[in-house]
């Protein structure tokens, strides 16, 4: 066997991603248990597209949200610059920096290994020049551990996208239609492509991004017939968000779909659960139980000492500091509650 043939065989069994998969747990090794789902790569997405299987995409902004997306079987995670508003409280996406995006992308990469990991390049870090766009992309991949970057803009960004893809080898996800980073120039957060000329422009933008080498193209806030036509014209998978059901896949913002963002709810978003309300109720209950002395309960939420050691400790603390011993650590909080204060009688 030649040296070249050996290298080919060695690489065949490896993941496309440079992020290694976690080792198999001892519980599943050698037991015949089902192997964990394969790593999602560009090749995986191409096969889904070829087989007409819709691609699921969701945003994630930190380790916990990444773990949830990983466990739910999502195909692609996007660390979107929407985190500027939903996670950091900024007014809009233009305020977030590249370093902040990298910080969150690293956290997501630690929480999810299976989905393909894409990160937004934020406003201002790829607009000045092709060189700036390349440097920002490289930094996002090297430091943020992203597997692809997403760039907003159509024909005007095609040359820079081509340089990132073909000269550097970093996959790029395109984004046309409503582009939040430059929403001001679009007249605000408005649906795009409602006029004939506007729809024609979107088609030209999509074709330019495909020619530039985009792996996926996000179609945001446009009439469904326009998104459907673009999807049919392209050989590149499209991911819709407010673009109707006839795209190659769908993406939603984590905080929107779970009801965890307090400012507004886009028309195109389906809220699958109102986690914000549930979390508020849980926190309110916690605060009341603390105030009423109902939490924590002795023996249920507390740690015990061996009885003999506890007696020795009480004797020591009493003799050394004059502190009167409390009830046993195993005593039910129903019989004694040291946190709850007795009401003060009002003077007549």
Report, as a whole number of angstroms, the end-to-end distance.
Answer: 101 Å
Structural class: alpha/beta
Question: What order do the strands of the largest sheet run in, or round the barrel if closed?
Answer: 1-2-3-4-5-6-7-8
Mean pLDDT: 85
Helix amount, in percent? 25-40%
Number of helices: 12
Low-confidence stretches: 1-18, 23-33, 332-348
Characterize the biggest β-sheet. Answer: 8 strands, parallel, barrel
Helix-strand pattern: HHEHEHHEHEHEHEHEEHHH
Radius of gyration: 27 Å
Query: Could you give the count of β-strands?
Result: 8
**Shape call:** elongated
β-strand percent reads 5-15%
Secondary-structure map with pairings?
Elements (H helix, E strand, L loop, with lengths): L2 H10 L29 H9 L4 E5 L3 H10 L3 E4 L3 H4 L11 H14 L4 E5 L9 H15 L3 E5 L2 H14 L3 E6 L18 H17 L3 E5 L3 H10 L4 E4 L7 E4 L1 H4 L17 H17 L15 H15 L27
Helix pairs in contact: 3-5, 5-6, 6-7, 7-8, 8-9
Descriptive overview:
This protein is α/β, with parallel strands linked by helices. It has twelve helices and eight strands. β6, α9 and β7 form a beta-alpha-beta unit. It is elongated, with a radius of gyration of 27 Å.
Overview in brief:
With 348 residues, the protein is of the alpha/beta class.
Feature tags:
348 residues, alpha/beta, eight-stranded parallel beta barrel, 12 helices, 8 strands, disordered C terminus, Pyrv_kinase-like_dom_sf, magnesium ion binding, Pyrv/PenolPyrv_kinase-like_dom, transferase
């Amino acid at each position: 066997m030649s040296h070249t043939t050996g290298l080919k065989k060695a690489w065949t069994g490896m993941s496309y991603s440079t992020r290694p998969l976690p080792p198999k747990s001892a519980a599943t090794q050698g037991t015949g248990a089902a192997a964990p789902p394969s790593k999602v790569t560009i090749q995986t997405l191409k096969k889904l597209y070829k087989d007409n299987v819709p691609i699921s995409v969701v945003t994630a902004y930190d380790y916990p949200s990444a773990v949830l997306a990983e466990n739910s079987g999502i195909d692609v995670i996007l660390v979107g610059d929407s985190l500027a508003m939903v996670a950091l409280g900024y007014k809009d996406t233009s305020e977030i920096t590249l370093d902040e995006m990298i910080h969150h992308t690293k956290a997501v990469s630690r929480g999810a290994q299976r989905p393909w990991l894409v990160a937004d390049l934020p406003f201002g870090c790829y607009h000045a020049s092709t060189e700036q766009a390349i440097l920002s992309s490289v930094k996002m991949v090297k430091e943020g551990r992203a597997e692809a970057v997403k760039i907003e803009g159509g024909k005007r960004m095609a040359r820079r996208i081509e340089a990132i893809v073909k000269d550097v080898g970093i996959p790029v996800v395109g984004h046309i239609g409503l582009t939040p980073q430059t929403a001001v120039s679009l007249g605000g957060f408005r649906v795009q492509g409602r006029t004939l000329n506007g729809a024609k422009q979107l088609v030209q933008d999509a074709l330019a991004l495909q020619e530039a080498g985009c792996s996926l193209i996000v179609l945001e806030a446009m009439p469904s017939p326009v998104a459907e036509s673009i999807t049919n014209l392209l050989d590149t998978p499209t991911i819709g968000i407010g673009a109707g059901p006839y795209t190659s896949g769908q993406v939603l913002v984590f905080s929107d779909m779970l009801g965890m963002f307090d400012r507004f709810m886009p028309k195109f978003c389906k809220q699958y659960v109102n986690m914000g309300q549930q979390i508020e109720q849980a926190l309110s209950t916690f605060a009341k139980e603390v105030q009423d002395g109902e939490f924590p309960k002795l023996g249920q939420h507390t740690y015990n000492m061996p009885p003999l050691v506890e007696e020795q400790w009480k004797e020591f603390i009493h003799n050394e500091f004059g502190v009167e011993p409390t009830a046993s650590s195993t005593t039910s909080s129903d019989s004694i509650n040291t946190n709850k204060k007795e009401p003060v009688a009002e003077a007549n």
